[in-house]
Amino acid sequence: MIDFFKKLFGQSGSSATAKERLRLVLMTDHIALAPDMIEQMKRDLVDVISRYVEVDREKVEVNFEQEDRALAMLANIPIVAVNRPKGGDGEKTERTEQPEAVAKTEPPQEETPVATASPAVAAAPNVASPGAHAATNGNMAPPKRRRRKKSGGAVNPKPATAH
Amino acid sequence: MHVLRQTQDENQPQDAAAITGARNLGRAIVITSGKGGVGKTTTAANLGTALAQRGARVALVDADVGLRNLDIVLGLESRVKHHLLDVLDETVTLDDALVSDKHSDTLFLLAAAQTREKDEVDTDKMRALVQQLRERFDYVLIDCPAGIEMGFKNAIAGAEEAIVVCTPEVSAVRDVDRVVGLLGNRFKPQLVINRLRPQLVKKGKMLSVDDVNAILRLPLLGVIADEPEIIVTTNKGEPIALRKDGQTANAYHAIAARIAGEDVAAPTVELKKESFLDKLGAFFGGRRS
Hints:
Chain A is an alpha+beta fold and 163 residues long.
């Protein structure tokens, strides 16, 4: 029925497909073209995550990948230490051996790319996860869609070092 | 917009050498697109012709070294004796290399070298040459090669403004978007949408002017319909802008007027509505030329 009306009003043409393809391809192009924006986003991302865990700023990697028709952001944020407030004896830091959290997100079909930084959390056995959920800001639409977490790959928790 | 340049006196000099004298610098405009085959050369030839028909002194520079075509579109191939690289190499003077147009007294062509390569062009020399041309002409239109490599860089080197030509296709729009990004703010790029087929747009089978410019967001200089007559004029080497009338010729003249700073009505998509007679004519295969 809807198709019938679309046909009737000439909206079912391939120009709609062209428009959509163009929109997607340019989104990818623009992200590749705006290193400034990526740097800024990286900083914001790290700033937010740093509120919960100590990350290695030098080794943060943010990449974009085309997945099917959507664009995905891959953030690789090595965590140096987890700040864990403990009862009365102040803040304690658990040192972990480079647990890397990979946050992967896909933007919904919207004009602006959406980045959801899924929690960069080290899943060290004796370290309670702070459960940080951080979303990048900037021109970002609300985070949604699936997340893939590949966390706590090689976790060799060291003895806790207090600061 | 741009200030309307004073047009010259009626008795135009026949010789390029005669075009001298202390005047303001002309405007150097590069015609580019990124993608090949969208009609840069045809646009350059027609805009050059249309501007010259207005009395302006125009130099057309074919920067597509190795794939010379502008001379063909203008019908000047038999007159070309020297080319751009000869001038840059200083083996001939600029005056020797400038070819006067058959139809427009104030139009001159500096052809590209056919048997040389794009990276043989020295960017600084190219810039100096365009500057030299600006001293003598009101407009220096540079026909840029496809691509974004050395040929593109050389073509834009001396220019200060840009016209980007785009067809209503995904690939062309993407490439224009890229080129505009590369040009940056310096060139104030303006858009010509070429080869639009209103009938297809109406049926939703082709990107519309609005679709294209919703993405590119450039000042729209003009819209040219996909018109079989363009092929005929190219076959003959007589740019369609030589005609006093007709939809496409008018569209080029309107662009020329807009370039010259005239406040011409905004380009519309109100392109030719196929009349009953047209359909009838097409049915009987009645095609001119």
